[in-house]
Amino acid sequence: xxxxxxxxxxxxxxxxxxxxxxxxxxxxxxxxxxxxxxxxxxxxxxxxxxxxxxxxxxxxxxxxxxxxxxxxxxxxxxxxxxxxxxxxxxxxxxxxxxxxxxxxxxxxxxxxxxxxxxxxxxxxxxxxxxxxxxxxxxxxxxxxxxxxxxxxxxxxxxxxxxxxxxxxxxxxxxxxxxxxxxxxxxxxxxxxxxxxxxxxxxxxxxxxx
Length: 209
What we know:
Elements: H1 5-15, H2 18-27, E1 34-36, E2 40-42, E3 46-52, E4 59-63, E5 74-77, E6 83-87, E7 93-103, E8 106-118, E9 123-125, E10 129-130, E11 135-141, E12 149-153, E13 165-166, E14 173-177, E15 183-193, E16 197-208
Parallel strand pairs: 2-8, 10-16
Antiparallel strand pairs: 1-3, 3-6, 4-5, 4-7, 7-8, 9-11, 11-14, 12-13, 12-15, 15-16
């Protein structure tokens, strides 16, 4: 028995309803990889990048916008994790995040997202005077890159000079042991980022008595 016109009309309306269209869209498989990362970042700071549906052997990189796929300022394999952290370049400028794959054994850019870095800055807090060999409570905040240090050295020491130090990426506060030799020292926040290497962002005089 053929359905009447009154029966067919509701069936046609049901097939084109918003609920049915939403159900059909939900059944479609997700298309391609995705990348989510900060678009603005203090130079030298760490940033977490989230990636989904990445192919095997994918890498996340930071490059200059006009660089070829094989050129990266910093890069890291993604592996099986959906997120990883990378340090931004220490220079102020325009860069881009890239999700890299491989084709015929060569890197190819699968996704890209702009990244603008701003001027890095840091602050230091510590007593102005300390007895030699005594603990010196210190606080240092800056880009907090994974290689940044707060260090106590002589004022004329180069940026890469070693001394009592801690890593603000792990904790912005620490206690350093004052040197055994009295004199005038300098507490420094040293950013150590891609492109720039060690660079002193903040200084504070400390007298060891």
